[in-house]
Amino acid sequence: MTFMNSKVKKTLLSTLLISSLAFLVSFDNPGDKYFQIAKNLEILSSVYSEVNKEYVDDINPSDFMQKGIDAMLASLDPYTNYIPEDAIEDYRFMSTGQYGGIGAVIGQRNGKHLILMPYEGFPAHKAGLRIADELVEIDGKKVTGKSTSDVSKLLKGEAETKLDLKVRRFGTEELLEISLMREKIKVDNVPYFGMVSEDVGYIRLKDFTTNASGEIKSALLDLKSKGAVKFILDLRGNPGGLLKEAIEISNIFVPKGKLIVSTKGKLERWNVFYNAEDAPVDTESPLVVLANNRSASASEIVSGVIQDYDRGVLLGQRTYGKGLVQTTLPIAYNAKVKVTTAKYYIPSGRCIQAIDYSNRNPDGSVGNIPDSLISEFKTSNGRVVYDGGGIAPDIETKPIQASVILEELEIQNMIFDYATKFYYENKDRVNSPSKFSLTDADYKEFVSWVGRKDFVYKSDFEKGLVQLTKLIKKDSLHHMNLNNEITAMEEKFKELKKQDFQIFKKEIVNALEENIVSREFYFKGMTEAALMHDENVIKAISVLNDPKKYNKLLSK
User: Are domains 98-186 and 192-399 of this chain identical in fold?
Assistant: First the structure.
């Protein structure tokens, strides 16, 4: 007797069950919703079966079904999605910040797999791996030609398992052989905190995974012990995470018993009010929260709570507008489906969610919202605030946009490669993140080095000219002889572009200094160097040092 594979049996049984359900319901009430569900499940099953059987080319059944599921869920909202069994580990890391590995960010530069940032205190750092070290072999397997994803999988594994690496370091011909033990890696939610002036403490919150609130509390108390009496909480670029952590972080700054957030859904069980349950750490110290158009979900809850209770000043750009609650539900074959089950509402009654999922600007920010769709709400002090999508700041600043030349220098790895070169040739000069600086002679050498590397890029003017030329060729103007004019403009742009290294010198020098400092002091040093010329941080310090302006911003 031949026995069927258990998975095949389950699939056949599921199909039979669907067919049976459709048959039974059809005799009950054809207009009933359950009949519609059973009917369409049977149709889906039939389409899937027949296409797999009859289609002219071979089809991967799993990929084919996943595309169908993904498309179906995408019609609802951007956050309801299917998580197959082979992606569960990545999902777990996003939820907890934990994985088994060496503790380093890796990436490709010029076709080579490099260490981009070791996490301090974890295996890569403890074993002596440095930024720009090239991975050549992992456990005897050459990595040439492999994708970054494949290399990452080779590095990850169970904690307490051995890993042998061969790496190439800048300026060294012989490969370095490094052995280390994988560990359970827990990436910090607070990768940096420190003093940015004599009495202003700064805390960067990157994620809302497990213990984010504990890390914020610890950082706050540490800064207080160093003399901080005013604070900056940086949520820029924070995509959010666990609701529990957003509630507890808000509770650090607002009194026990205060409403933090409520959720409302189709089912009664999703209608929940969440209040601050613990004694706060600090409800008085002046506070500025930094946010931008990539601050989402839990970041928006914290930003909204601080604004609604007039607990601090929100500075930056309107937040992303992601106010939907997702619940992860287990389904067959160890997979999961993440379903939107409710919406978030902050204390003033505002819903964070952008009204139109698809109406976004090219940079991802909330698109234009008609006034007729916007409702007015009030903060504790009576300040007028609005819904419609995300949280609007009390002080709006322009998004920081890198110049075209800096973007191209980074894309073409000029900043990264020169920072490595400079560091290994001038280690003795890189002795402090906040005090290191490049001289005019250093910058002149960088410009000369870039010139020898055949650095080529198109300025905004040149990109515009290319588009203009295409339009001329398509339009009725094509008969006009404009070649000489276009050539003259191209030459003029080339001359103007030569000045870009001087026009954008400060911006390029800042990027170089941050990268060079990171080679010795890693992420914390890089952050400390960047804060010195961060316009939003400088603006926040100015607001905190002006009590009259600060209080006026929070008054009706």
Answer: no
CA distances from 139 to 42, 82, 105, 267 (A): 49, 33, 18, 52
> What amino acid is encoded at 29 in this protein?
N
308 is catalytic: yes
* Per-residue model confidence as pLDDT tens digits over 200-256: 999 999 999 999 999 999 999 999 999 999 999 999 999 999 999 999 999 999 999
d(CA 189, CA 209): 7
- Whether 539 is a known active-site residue: answer no
Q: What is the C-alpha to C-alpha distance for residues 202 and 280, in angstroms, rounded to an integer?
A: 19
Instruction: Confirm whether 20 is a catalytic residue.
Output: no
Largest separation between any pair of C-alpha atoms in the chain: 87
**Homologous superfamily (CATH) for 98-186:** PDZ domain (2.30.42.10)
Domain 192-399 belongs to what topology?
Answer: 2-enoyl-CoA Hydratase; Chain A, domain 1 (3.90.226)
Q: Which of 295, 297, 365, 518 is the catalytic position? A: 297
Determine the distance from the C-alpha atom of residue 293 to the mean position of all C-alpha atoms in its chain, rounded to a whole number.
11
Interval 43-81: pLDDT, tens: 888 888 888 888 888 888 888 888 888 888 888 888 888
Residues with Cβ < 8 Å from 211, sequence gap 6 or more? 189, 245
C-alpha dihedral (151, 153, 155, 156), degrees to nearest 10: 160
Structure tokens at 193: 């905190």
Beta bridge partners of 162: 181
Taking only Cα atoms into account, the Rg of the chain, rounded to an integer number of angstroms, comes to 28
The single residue of 230, 322, 387, 394 carrying the catalytic annotation is: 322
Strand 384-386, strand 287-291: pairing: unpaired
**SS3 category, 25:** helix
Whole-angstrom distance, CA of residue 136 vs CA of residue 154:
12
What confidence tier does 348 reach under pLDDT thresholds 50, 70, 90?
very high
Nearest 5°: CA angle at 342, between 339 and 348?
A: 150
CB neighbour burial string for 332-360, b if at least 16 within 10 angstroms, e if fewer: eeebbbbbbbbbbbbbbebbbbbbbeeeb
Q: Dump the DSSP string for 499-548.
A: THHHHTHHHHHHHHHHHHHHHHHHHHHHHHHHHTT-HHHHHHHHHHT-HH
Q: Where are the domains of the chain?
A: 1-57, 98-186, 192-399, 404-538
CB contact at 8 A, 218 and 235: no
For residues 255-283, b (16+ Cβ closer than 10 Å) or e, as one string? eeebbbbbbebeeeeeeeebebeeebebe
pTM of the model: 0.83
The burial class, CB within 10 Å (0-12 / 13-18 / 19+), for 87 is middle
Q: Are 337 and 329 in contact (CB under 8 A)?
A: yes
Given the residues 133, 308, 394, 534, select the one marked as catalytic: 308
